[in-house]
Amino acid sequence: MAITSCHGAPPSARASRPVPEPHGDALPGPEQANRRHTTLVRRLSLAPLLATAVLMSGCGMAPAAPADDEPTVTAESSATESSETEEDAAAAAAADEGADVSDTTADDHGSESTVDAVPEPAPEPEPEPEQIDAPSFTGSGSEVVILEPLGDAVFYAEVTHDGTGNVALWSVDGNGQDIDLLVNEIGSYSGQVAVNFGEEPSALRVEADGDWTITFHHLSEAPRWDGSDTYEATGDSLVIVDGVADGLTPVTLTHAGESNFAIWAWGESRPDLIVNEIGRYDGTTLLPDGSLVLQVDADGPWTISME
Prior knowledge:
By secondary structure, this protein is of the alpha+beta class.
C-alpha cells in the first residue's frame, strides 16, 4: 500500500455558458432601400411634367391633343401609376418578409440559446472507501496469523512479547514467502512496526517462547512531529513527519542504545535509509524532501530535532 500525502489537491473547473451570436437587424436591406429611393425619384420626375402640361393647357399655349391620343395619355399615366403602386406593394411585402425572417431567426437563436443554457448535471461524488476495523491478535509461542484483506487502509502494529528467548515476527505473502522481518529481539519486547507500508501481507508468522500480542492501528493514529521541538521516543517507533521536510532539511538524531539504530524515511515512493549505525549515535543528516513517516529501529532512547 503506497503512502500518500495528507495535503488536499486544488478546486475543480466550471463550465462556461455559451453566448449566442448577435442577431441581424429586422430593418429592410440595401436592395429594398434602393428600390424605395428609385420609386421616389420617379415620382418627383413625373410631377413637374404633369404640372407644366396643366399650366400650358390652361393658358392656351399647349396645342390641343387629338381626341384619339387622350386615351393613350391616360393609359400611360395609369400604367405609370400602376407600376408605382406595384413597386410600392412589392417593397412593402419584401420588408414584411424580411421582418418575418428576422423574427424567425431570432426565435430560432433564442430557442438554441435556451437549449444551450441548460447546465449539465454535476458528476456524483465518489464514495469514500469503507473504513476497515483494526484487528488485534494474541497468542503464545510460535504461530501463524492469517490476515483478512486490508484494502486501501494503511496500518502499523504495536507488538509485545513476554519471554526469555528470541522473538521474531515476519510478514508473509499469499504464496507463503517471507516479505519482511518486522521484529527480531531477545527476551521481552515492546515496539511499533510498519505492517503494509509496502507490499500487503497475507499473514504474519510469529516465532516466540512466551506470550505475545499484535495490535493494529490506522496510520493516522501514529504520533506526529511538526519539527518545532525535539521529539523523543524509545525502541522501535513510528512518527509522522508530513510537512516537515521542505527542500534541504537537516535533522539531528541521537541514540543511547547498544544495538542497531536504523531509520527509514517513507515518502510517496520507496523508503530512504537515512541512518544505519550500531550502539550510541549523535549526528546530523538530511530528511528527504516529501518524507511522510519515519520508521525507527532502536533498542534504546532516541531523539530527532531541527538545527
